[in-house]
Each structure stands twice: as structure tokens, then as C-alpha cells.
Amino acid sequence: MATQSKITPRQLGAHGPKVFPMALGCMGMSGMYGPSDETESIATIHEALDRGITLIDTGDFYGMGHNELLIGRAIKDRRDKALLSVKFGALRGPDASWNGYDARPAAVKNFLAYSLNRLGVDHIDIYRPARLDPQVPIEETIGAIRDMVTAGYVRYIGLSEVGPDTLRRAQAVHPISDLQIEYSLVSRGPEAAIFPVLAELGIGVTAYGVLSRGLLSGSSTTGKGDFRSYLPRFSGENLVQNQRLVGVLKTLAADKHVSPTQLAIAWVLAKGQRMVPVIGARKRVQLDESLGALGIELSASELKDIEAALPPSEVAGARYGEHQLHQLDSER
Length: 332
Hints:
Elements: E1 10-11, E2 18-19, E3 23-25, H1 38-50, E4 55-59, H2 66-74, E5 83-88, E6 90-92, E7 98-101, H3 105-119, E8 124-129, H4 138-151, E9 154-160, H5 164-173, E10 176-182, H6 190-201, E11 204-208, H7 236-255, H8 260-269, E12 275-279, H9 284-291, H10 300-309, H11 322-327
Helix pairs in contact: 1-2, 3-4, 4-5, 5-6, 7-8
């Protein structure tokens, strides 16, 4: 495994902060994948910070605020070690329903005020709308966050799941540090039109879903509280087909004496210095395994062989359901 002293930070775009090559995504600590243990979650956040991870990613709607409160407790005595990336805009109901998005300027400031309070901090390091609000020009949303940068409540502005046109329009208002978007061996869509624009504009990538929600690690759904049970890739014959691909990944990983999880993360890490994978570890053992990917070096020929062995055309099912995909600006 690579030691912390040998790990080179990565720059989030031309205008963003330098961060550890991996980020810790905390969504799964607030029920999205079924029950979780708060004590273990906090211990995992502590372990991540102690081992050098700097960027902690959350959303104010994860667990209807639970995730931010959890992170706030975890970083109370170690705020100086953590850079906080917060998504906002998704509307939730008391029954945990999803009720659209709101990225109006007034809503931006309202969401931010509550996030600062729940996290127990005086500023957010990277603040980003979770999705494009089709009712609000992106210039208005970014302009409102820019005002919060000027006021000192936000340090950098990010985006999530948006396409080339939105990226250009947002960048014209204020420099964007990074785009958070799903990217993995089996979700390579951004390579065609989005990544070239990011390179042109000097915007970094925080890649989530690098294990395709646990599919590539062999994880299975846990029941009613696990939202993956609604995702096409985890359903019926799609899952059967995808498990065959996971078998291929296992073989490739065994040849390198690493785990499938580590090989999948190492592939993302090897795709460029502007790429920072967001690791959704809920437990310290998962975190430890993921960090092992930092010690894996993949040559250009190895990358080509891995990609040829797991072609996206062989993946059964989309990364989201049809309704959710239709809402994504990045899919247009």
C-alpha cells in the first residue's frame, strides 16, 4: 500500500483546492443503503481524516439532515483536517419522499444557513447544487453561491450531474472547482462530451459511484430501505448479466493479487490527475480496502485491457431509473 508520505495531493481544477486523491462520501451512513451504525460511521470518518483524506462529501438531504448532523459530530474537534463538500437543492418529505429540486437564489441561502448550523461550521468548502433546477437559470443559482463566497460562507463552487452547456454558462459566472458525476468501469458516459469540456475549462472531477453502488464489489441489496433495489442494474436478469461482468473483474483483480474493489478504484485513479474518486465507505474495513487502491499502478496497456474486458455495452440496465435519468442535465 502507498504510504501517506508518498501520496501526492490532486488539484480540483484550476481554481479549486488541493485534496487527498480520494474523498469520503457519507451518503450511505444515513440509511440510503439500509441501516448503518452511527458509532462505526463516526469512527470511519475519524479514520479517514487520520489517514490523510481531506474531502468529506455529503448532501443536506441525506437522511433529511441526519448526515450533516453526523458529520458535524465527527469533525467537531478536527475541523482543520476536513474540507466539506455539500450538495443542496433536493426536496424531501417527512415520509422520506423526493419532491423535486429548488435552486432559486433565496433557496440557496436558506439551504446554506441550515447546513452551516447542522455541521457546526462557519463556512462550507465546496457548495454545489445537487442537480440542475430546470425552472431556474444556472446563472442565478451560481450567482447566489458567488454572493456567499464573497460573504465568506463558501470557499469554492462545484456542480453535480450537469452537461457541457450548463458547465460553460456556470463557469462564465464564477470559476467552478469540480463536477461531481458518476463514473466507473461500467459508467463511462462522461468521457464522450463532458470530460473534454472539463479539461478545456479547467474543472476537476469528483467521481462518485466508482463501484457502481457496490455492484463491482459484489455487494447486494439489503432490503426495503436500500434504494438500489429500485435501480435497473440491480434488478432481475440485469443483475444476473452484471454479475457475470463482476466475475470478469474478479479474475482480473486476482491476476494482480488485489480485490475487485481496489482494481475498480485504481482504474478511476489512473484516468488522470484531475480525477478524485469519492469512496462510499460506511465501515473502517471498507475504508482500509479502498485506500489499498492507492498502491496499485496500472500501465496504459493494462488500462486498455481492463476496459476491453468490461465494455459498457455489456452492462445491463441504466445507472438510474428512466424517470431519474430524464431529470439529469448530464444525460441530455
